[in-house]
Amino acid sequence: MTSGSISIRSLKKSYGNARGVENISLEIQSGEFFTLLGASGSGKTTLLRLIGGFEKPDQGEIWIGDQNVTQTSAYRRNVHTVFQDYALFPHLTVRDNVAFALDIKRIGASEQKQKIDEALQLVGLSGFSERKPSQLSGGQQQRVALARAIVDRPAVLLLDEPLSALDAKIRQELRESLKQLQRSTRITFLYVTHDQEEALILSDRLAVMQNGFLQQVGTPVDIYEQPINGYVARFIGKTNFITGKLKQMQNSYGTIQIDSLNFQGHLTTSLNLESDVQLMIRPENVQITSQQLPHSLSGKIVQAHYLGATTEYLIITQLGPFRVLEIRQRGTPSHTEGANVFLSWNSENARIYPTGNL
Amino acid sequence: MKWTLGFYTTLVYLFMYLPIAVIILFSFSQSEILSLPISGWTFDWYRDALQDARLKAGLENSLKIAFIATLVASTLGTLGALAVQRYQFLGRTAFRTAIMLPILLPGIITGVAMLSFFATIHLPLGLATVMIGHATFGFPVVFNTVASRLARLPKNLEEAAADLGSNPRQTFQKVLFPAMRSSIIAGALLAFTLSFDEIIVTLFLTGQQNTLPTEIWARLRFGMTPEINAIVTMILILSCGLVLLSQRFSKE
Predict the structure, then answer these.
(1) What ipTM was reported for this prediction?
(2) Which among A58, A200, A253, B203 would be 20 to 30 A from A8, CA to CA?
(3) Which residues of chain A lie closer than 8 angstroms to B162, CB-CB?
(4) Could you give the 3-state DSSP secondary structure of residue B187?
């Protein structure tokens, strides 16, 4: 099998003054499930289209395996794409849609049949081969698009928000199928989404993009636990922020001051004393107590949403609203709406970012 | 209330279709004079109509004209639809509107305008000029059916084909053309039907030869005959058949 590694070197693409990608370098391993995560306009789809060959970069190089494909036409690249709106051929049956790439390659009938049957079985559509796309549901159509794209085992599969047009339930089902499909075929998957939950569940590694730049590349755990800046912290999961001035630095810890209150957290980058900073703390790392503790923040619970395994609180403090997630083994939520409480956290779980970076 | 509504609906349908029903009825009547009650039934008028040399010549001309006009209209209409749906260019909206004009304009305007144009460029009138005239209103008909099909196709169909390894020529042959084929056929059938029974533009642009509609029109000056009933019934069946067929293809 050919190597499905992708190497992107100083890639740049702009559309007049509109969004594009800015000087991106990225290495993706063969067989990896890699996700580009970002809001709309972050450049993730542009990057995907550049790799697919639908757009040509202004600068930089794209390598797939040991081949420089920067100037190669889309139809000569060993890469297939699963489109957001499926893009099935409406006049062809499911079988003929899946056969398309094999036909182009002039693969013999018996080998075709075996490959098509295998692909349809992998996506769970064995009984549907004689239907037309218009006779299938959205989820089934996307499965056909998947079968069509993996039938001749490309080095790389590009997936452009393949689940975003589907209902929540189908989306979850197909998400599982995608992961299994990637594990069983070991094709490199490059997946584009704006859904952070999808990105965390599916990916071996992911890249968070904003305004055409890569903000952070890492495993889901890296990115959730150690977001590199305020943007990434906000984009992945829920967060609480306190803004203040940096008063003290010691080893890798800093102390920020606001309204004569002091809080400690990890310093993520070198900063100047007295500069404006923000301290980030995840909702599940905040403890709610009835008694005041050192460095705690007083507030009042305005919402308590009981979700079974967890309870979500919204607490108004003197520093603004705070979200707190409480995980309980059993029993009723420990606090009720309207209660006056104190919030505290372990400073190891708090991170300090410059405010300039959102 | 329900009864009244049904009554008026029936009246409206009678108003629209009774004259046609009468023609069909009389085309099978034995009597040469169109009068009720019908004394006996016959297929003779159909035989006579099909053996009439001038009607046959007219039919032949009509078919020739419709065939060539449809061929021209289908080619231009398909290319026009591809241009408007797949490419951005200066004056695209104006182009679109300009294409639609020939079916919006009254036939008399198209007729007069083309007549004076052909006179200016010294093109003698004949079947060829009628073909050109008919192609002008066939073109927007084909354009419309093909453009609306293209608009309904997935946007990135061609990208999907390229993505799966097909070069631009294969993409057109294997994906784009098959996906529009039935809409081209639908538009062509409609253009053919319109050309086949067109009379106003034809009157202006024809030379010595008559088409089937102008031949019938010429004969009507001497009164209605049973052969005309027979031939009109045949045209009716052909036209309805073509339109129904066209609708089936455009839905595909």
Answers:
(1) 0.81
(2) A200
(3) 53-54, 73-75
(4) helix
